[in-house]
Hints:
The protein is of the alpha/beta class and about 450 residues long.
Amino acid sequence: MTHILHRQIDHRYPSAVRGSGIVLRDADGKEYIDASGGAAVSCLGHSHPAVLAAMRAQLDALEYAHTSFFTTPVAEALADDLVAHAPEGIEHVLFVSGGSEAIEAALKLARQCFVERGEPQRRFIIARRQSYHGITLGALAIGGREAHRQKFAPLLIETHHVSPVYEYRERPAEESASDYAERLARELENKISALGSDKVMAFIAETVVGATLGAVPAVPNYFQRVREICDRHGILLILDEVMCGMGRTGTLYACEQEGVRPDMVAIAKGMGGGYAPIGALLISGEIFGSIAEGSGAFAHSHTYMGHPLACAAALAVQQIIRRDDLLANVRRQGAHLARRLGERFGNHPFVGNVRGRGLLQGVELVVDRGSKEPFDPRLKLHARIKREAMTRGLMVYPMGGTADGIRGDHVLLAPPFIADTATVDTIVERLGEAVDAATAPVT
Ligand SMILES: Cc1ncc(COP(=O)(O)O)c(C=O)c1O
């Protein structure tokens, strides 16, 4: 009998006791290849000696100092490091302890920024359906995952949603990718007009949609059109790179591949690689200036922001990624993973689409490839695939609701950046067996 309120109360979770590189071991000695980095977190794998050494050194010096009294050398060094490699225009960092906290801070900073600029009427946030921005009330409100939101709907702040970029299901064959981008841009523009362009404060999007759609990138020119529209109406562009950022797609920020300059970027997961809970909100010089020249303080803080141990872990993770040129490996192994997934699932009767960027790849399941009909959600195919994969010693990150928030299933893969070709081959082999086993009762 456990006293923990686990995610699924009736599920018996194996107990993880050791981790090394790309492998986790449970209390029974069974080993699992961590092909999802947990939830796209463990970018360096487990027990990296250099990260552990940096954390031990920080503990020996100072474990904690409250940010209302002190700054610390390690937090300053991490902020310098992040800003030095951040997208153009980003000049400051707010530290938090995870993705949802980074998103909550982004929403409140957007609001405070407009209040300080003398535009207090700006209060609307536009987000996209089938997105995930976190589980706290603000993040849940802007998220577009209906199954998550329904129970809590009466508690959620007003948010407005537009379509995601979801080529596989929503771009008809006769529409070009550029016409599709244009159609989505018009939808955003219409939404802004309907709300009143001087009343909208921010548009928020995952640069590459992670958990809810399963590694879906935008089409070319989409984000550039979004940026133009935001600029024209004085609206802030907030990118959620909690999952797709910090190297996961092959560049440090996914938005580098889109050629856009965000006003704020939320990061977490791969920032600390799972060695400590940490996230951050990266902030443009203009936004910082509005607060600095206004009240002089962002009305938002947490007890553990800038925790020295978490900062030491994140700084070491980011330095090792550069030292070992791991983003080159993300691009190399990402291409290999995409190729192997294509070979294994390209003609699979129940796989409709394989997509992704770098070491963030998704496989979407359908009952019929021609009509793209999703599986009956009551089958919980995604959960079956997870079970079958775990039986075979493979951690992947399957999810339901892909097609419309309720129906549809996909599997997300996000192996550590240290993955090699042989491991990628084993991942695809085991995933193939798991998908075959999970779909066998359906045939
Ligand atoms: C894109 C995105 N944003 C925000 C979050 C929330 O992060 P956290 O679970 O650390 O609160 C997640 C978590 O999966 C995410 O994928």
